[in-house]
Amino acid sequence: MNSSPVSRAPRIALIGVTGYASIYLEMLRPFLKRGEIELSAVVIINRTLPAAAAAATELAGWGATIYDNAEAMFAREAGRINLCLIPTGIAWHARLTVAALRAGMHVLVEKPLAGSRADVESIRNAERETGRWVAVGFQDIYSEAAQGLKAEVERGVLGRLLSVKALGLWPRPVAYYTRNHWAGCLRADGVDVLDSPLNNAFAHFVNLSLFFAAAADGTERAVELSDAELWRVNAIESFDTAVVRGRLAGDVRFWFGFSHATRELHEPEILLTGTLGKARWIHEGQIEIETNDGNRRVAAMPDAFGCRQRMFRAVLGRLRNPAVPVCDTALAAKHTAFICDLHAFAGVADAPSHLVEPQLSPTGEVEHLRVTGLGSAMRRAFADEGTLAASGVFTATGASEVLAKS
Q1: Same domain, yes or no: 154 and 222
Q2: What's the pLDDT score for residue 69?
Q3: Suppose 43 and one of 15, 57, 84, 389 were both cysteines; which one would form an S-S bond, judging by CB atoms 3.0 to 4.6 Å apart?
Q4: Does residue 196 lie in a domain region?
């Protein structure tokens, strides 16, 4: 198939318009209004929903052909679409991406790339077979600030990197896990999804941490897990709270702590520590670099909408120039490998029921399940690079019992 650069306004296909796909639609609107893209095809499988019906009317007004399923769209639009956007559930990332590639389309697929190494490999094989490429929707990595921090780390501003830590606390209601059929699941629709904070809401920051800490010479930093506390407070298969520790290539320590079951909100932050200084990345906030000689620099971070705009701009640029960098499958595959290794390494334990505090809605229904003191314990563990058990929570059943599978 012809994979030459696109010279006219690229023809775009979008799979889905509700759920997270509505955010992609929001991302596209400014580009549509400026005439920078042509939205040629849209898949809407649930047009009876009011939001979907409204989107169908809007997008038909932009000239898009509306399809009831992806198979029909791929069959009809094969060879005619430059870029297919796939903001679907994790279980469908690999199969839709492979189908799009084989229909002659480049792809922007939402994070994570897939739920298993096998699915990642099927995507990468399809890239090689078709000569098409895949970009992945880890939008934060596309910002100038994040790219600048990566360049500073590689330039040695922080000296030899010693550790990378990431913390994020985003309380989620019980409804978060009933919003679709795969939320909190390990498998769905016949494939692995491994849904969890580290593979969904906070996946951006795990991936970004691995990106910042990657060796400057491009050599692989093998991930060595030392311990992991994976807890479920909600009634799910997977976990909603985790502290994971280990090393990258044996010399860079990492600590990741994320939860949806806290009372407190703590916007994601990443802290890089080197022999010559520290850098702190704060979600939708700023990047601070402070060296041991007292020099301090601050760069503003765009918000999530701004990051997505930059991401889509980069992906459109890639259509015209293969040298434009995107978050490709080689980079995103490292995140998936980390998630797969984590689930193979550690089991998931139920949080002790006496620590879980239900919060009721005005009608008396359970709205939130939260663990008292969890937020402050996570912050202590972040500061100390320690465990939740050492910070004073989840000790009743013995955290050591769930650190690794037997």
Answers
A1: yes
A2: 97
A3: 15
A4: yes
